[in-house]
Amino acid sequence: MPTPPPTPTPTPPPALTTTLWRPALQTSWQWQLTGTIDESIDAQMYDIDLFDTGATVVASLHAKGRKVVCYFSAGSFEDWRPDAALFPASVKGRALDGWPGENWLDIREISVVGPIMEARMDLCKAKGFDAIEPDNIDGYANASGFALTYQDQLNYNMFLANAAHKRGLSIGLKNDLDQVGDLLPHFDWALNEECFQYNECNLLAPFVNAGKAVFTVEYGLSTSSFCPQANSMNLNSLKKNLDLDVYRVACR
Questions:
Q1: DSSP H or E run through 61
Q2: How confident is the model at residue 19 (pLDDT cuts 50, 70, 90)?
Q3: Considering only CA atoms, which of 184, 190, 187, 181 is closest in space to residue 217?
Q4: Is-contact 145 104, C-beta < 8 A?
Q5: Three-state DSSP class for residue 229
Q6: Which of 1, 15, 173, 201 has a CB 3.0–4.6 Å from the CB of 190, allowing a cystine?
Q7: Exposed, middle or buried: residue 141 (CB in 10 Å: 0-12, 13-18, 19+)?
């Protein structure tokens, strides 16, 4: 009886490839949300507004070798946005202090709010952005008008991270420092406002320790009072004006 041929080893499926861009631990950047985008800044990453920025600007920045982050608010309703009519009154909460026309969202209602945010991510992708910066994703820690819990916020923020990754976009954890431990595995980098002002920058250390870039901004402090520490902590820190115009002083 002839010896049967050896059973061939099954060919493993091809490894999934990803075009997901994640910023290096040290990445120079510019954050501009108001005014005409100044494309001449010598920065590796630009963080700019989804709705106010056309695809031609994103393409122009890419041509200059920049990566481009798509800013939108994922945790608040803004009455001037082109998709404002999609938000039912039931998910609009208290107004954000100091921001006229803006209200906290009931992020427990992912079946309502989620598709709107996914459509925004689709627009980010269509315009050619490389990553997203979802703002106001710490409503549970604010007077939102809803009984949001820590777990509600985790559920929503992980939903956002998964939705971004499905679209080949990296995602930054904006503020929300108390949830860094739980969200570190899901977010690719972090962006924080005024952690030196409030002595909270140590809470961002897990990102740096994991090799994930951290971007910080101060508005009221002098660069001499925070830049040396920021550099020693390996943070990518800027001094900016509160309206996030073109003004920028980088710590390194």
A1: helix 55-63
A2: confident
A3: 190
A4: yes
A5: helix
A6: 173
A7: middle
The yes-or-no verdict on residue 252 having pLDDT over 70 is yes
Find the distance separating the first CA and the last CA of the chain, reported in whole Å. 76
- Give the integer Cα–Cα distance in Å for 109 and 97: 23
CA 238, 233, 157, 147 dihedral sign is negative
Q: What integer pLDDT is reported at residue 197 of this predicted model?
A: 98
Per-residue DSSP letters for 98-160?
Answer: T-TTEEEE-TT-HHHHHHHHHHHHHHHHHHT-SEEEEE---GGGS--SS---HHHHHHHHHHH
Virtual CA dihedral for 67, 73, 110, 105, nearest 10 degrees?
170
231's CB contacts (< 8 A; 6+ apart) are: 237, 251, 252
Provide the CATH number for the domain formed by 29-250 in this structure: 3.20.20.70
What's the token pair of residue 87? 């938000």
Q: Can you tell me the mean pLDDT for 112-127?
A: 98
Where do we find the tokens 């954000």? 96
CB 144 within 8 A of CB 93: yes
- The pLDDT value recorded for residue 42 is 96
| Cα(161)–Cα(143) distance, integer angstroms | 24
The pLDDT value given to residue 98: 87
